[in-house]
Amino acid sequence: MDRRTFIRVAAPFVGSVLGAQALSGCRRALGLIPSAMPTNPPSEIPTNTPPPLPTATNLPDPTATTVPDRAVVVLVKTEDRIDGVQRALSILEARDFRGKRVLVKPNLNSSHATPGSTHNDVLATMVQWVEQNGSEHITVGDRSGMEMTRRVMDKKGLPAMGDELGFDLIAFDELEVEDWEHIEFEGSDWPSGIALARPVREAEGIVSLCCLKTHRFGGHFTMSLKNSVGMIASHVPGEGVEYMAQLHNSTAQRRMIAEINAAYKPDLVIVDAVDAFIYGGPDTGTLAHPGLILAGTDRVAIDAVGVAILRYFGTTNVVQQGPIFKQAQIERAVSLGLGIDHPNKIDLITDDAASDGFAETLRPILLQDAA
Questions:
Q1: pTM: predicted TM-score of the whole model, two decimal places
Q2: In this predicted model, what pLDDT tens digit does every residue of 271-280 receive, in sequence order?
């Protein structure tokens, strides 16, 4: 088998029946029962209009973006995160970070073990790879949602890792007023726009490190699109707007998640799907073991493949039902021109028989009910 096997989702295939049988058998074997989904705690949504943040800007209309013709998603079957990330990066081929200031954005929503947060092996491997590809300066930054960010970083040992590997560490919830940038665009579901961490806007390269999991607090799932929530403020000191209250109390929550992504474009996205939460999440939940690493640059394509993996293992009703591209996060991202607009535009790329076999199984799931 060729080292790089391209699997176009739209191509004819013989394995659709086998894929459906494998899915059904896997569900029976797992004996999964959905856990109760907690509701959001009630809180009042702020209605005040914030004063402009320093150097406020309006986001250009992202709907003017041309929809990509194809999107590559690398899929590597592995039990070894370090080897899996390195293989995926090799297949995807190098991104040019020479002389650039690069921001690596992990999933540090909490300090819980992976997939509750980014595995240290994935973070260290990615930082070393970015440095080897010529980055002038590397910053690791995030804002946690369930704990104070600095505490999460300390509990995961990231200050010591930063000292060893030579990267800076920024807790976005410690930023001052002048370190946030107010962004809005016409038609947004955010009533007050968003406040984006200035290090995101100023980075010359952005790498997003994601986990694969469901999200019981209204997001439905959290992969590359939702990883962006940690780039915006919960609140800006003295401003008077509670952005996370607006998000979590809105019926448009999943659309709002997608809209954050219009504020920036990643150079690289890695999804650690060696382990995944198929119920619960984002901190704890029912574990499955896909044994996969995904890599790409198209957030829509990455999340679509991630949803297909969740469906393969059996997941929540809201994630399981309907066409994948009608999931609200993905549908809104497509409407904003942030990625491909149909699953038949995804090219799954693998480098061995095990990865190729799993990619074949995902194809009918990706295309299920697609118009």
A1: 0.86
A2: 999 999 999 9
